[in-house]
Amino acid sequence: MKIERIEAIPYAIPYTHPLRFASGEVATADHVLIRVHTDDGLVGTADAPPRPYTYGETQQSIRTITEDVFAPQLLGLDPFDRERIHEVLRRTIHNQVAKGALDIALWDLIGQATATQVHKLLGGYTESMRVSHMLGFKPAQELLEEALRFGQDYGITTFKLKVGRRPLALDIEACHVLREGLGEDVELYLDANRGWTANEAMQVLQRTEGLGLTMLEEPCDAKEAMSRRRLVEKSPIPIVGDESVPTAGDVSRELLSGGSNAICIKTARSGFTEATEILGLCTGLGVDVTMGNQIDTQIGSLATVTFGAAHEASSRRAGELSNFLDMADDLLAEPLAIRDGRIRVREVPGVGAAVDEDKLAHYRQD
Ligand code: MUC
Ligand code: MG
To answer: Is 294 assigned a catalytic role?
Structure first.
C-alpha cells in the first residue's frame, strides 16, 4: 500500500455558542480536513483544528505545510512504515496540529487495511469514555445553568471551568456558585490557559480551598519557571501542563523541571503516535494524564475517544469530548452520541470518521 495523494481541505462551520477562554475565543470551526489516499483506494481521515493564539498554526499554514512540505515527501511511502514517515515529519519543527492530523489519518488507513478498529490496534482497553464538558467564560449563574443542563441532557458529571480572568474574584465566585449548585458528587477542575501569574494562581487555590477542585491546568506561562515550580510544590491539587507540552520532549522538560505534575494529552496536536509516547512517559513516571479537547469537532472528538479508551491510564479520568455540541453542524456522517455521560468508540475498521460528502461540499472553502 502506498500513499498516492494527500488533501488538506479548509472548511468553516459556525458555533451556536462561542467558547471564550483566557487565550482566545472560538466562534467558527475554521478547520482543515486531512485526507490521505492510497493506491488501493483507501482514504484515511482526520481533522486539524488550528489554534493560532496557542500554537501559531492557522488554517492557511496547515494547508501550506501539508500540501507544500509534507505531502511531496510522503507520497509513495507505505502508511505501515510509521517510523519512516515520522522521520520526515520530525525534520520540520513545530506544526504539531498538521502533523497530528496526518498521523491520525495514517492510523485510520492502517486500521482499514487490516480490517481492525484503531482503538484495538492502540490498546483496546475499554469501549467508551466518561465525558467531561468544558465551560467557557460566562457569568457564574449562566455557567451553573449550562452545567445543570449538560448533566440533565447527557448525564455529564465532570466539568472543566475556564478561568484565568482578572479580577480573580470573577473565577473564584464561579467556582463557589458551581460547587454550591452542582453538589459534592460532580467533579470540577480548572483551566486558566496562562491567564494568571503563578502567584495569582496560588491566591485562587487558597480562596477556593474546601471546594474539592481536582486539578488546575496551565495556570500561568510555564516559562515563569521558578514561581511555577513553587506553585507545583505548594499546590494541594495537580498542576496540569497543556499548551506547554505539545510534544514528548516538552513533557519531559516540564516534568523534570517541576513545571507540571500532570499532563493533558490532545490527539489533535500529538496524533496517536506521539500521544502514545507521551502516555508512556507519564505512566512510567507515575504522572496522571487527562484527555483534552482542542475545541474539537465530532471527527476530532472521535479521535480523542479512540485513543483515550484504548489505554487504562488515559481512560481513568473523564475525557473532554463534548464541545462539538455547541457547533451548528458537523462533517461526521453518523453523529457522535453522548449517552449516560459516555461516548463509545466506533465498531468499524479504522477510526470510523466517515464524512458526509454533501456537508463537506457545503462547508468547504476552497
Ligand atoms: C484547553 O484545554 O486549553 C483552548 C485553547 C486550546 O488550544 O484548547 C482549548 C482547551
Ligand atoms: Mg487547556
So the answer is: yes
How do the domains of the chain map onto residue ranges?
Answer: 3-115, 120-344
Which residue out of 162, 218, 224, 298 is catalytically annotated?
162
Q: Let me know: does 63 contact 8? Beta carbons within 8 Å.
A: yes
CATH code for the domain defined by 3-115: 3.30.390.10
Of 1, 5, 11, 3, residue with least CA distance to 299: 11
Q: Which of 119, 148, 126, 143 is nearest to 304 (CA)?
A: 119
Global pTM reads: 0.98
Task: Please give the number of the atom of ligand 1 that sits closest to the Cα of 264.
Answer: 2
CATH of domain 120-344: 3.20.20.120
Which atom in ligand 1 lies closest to the alpha carbon of residue 269?
7
Q: For residue range 105-137, list pLDDT tens digits in order.
A: 999 999 999 999 999 999 999 999 999 999 999
Instruction: Tell me the average pLDDT of the chain.
Output: 98
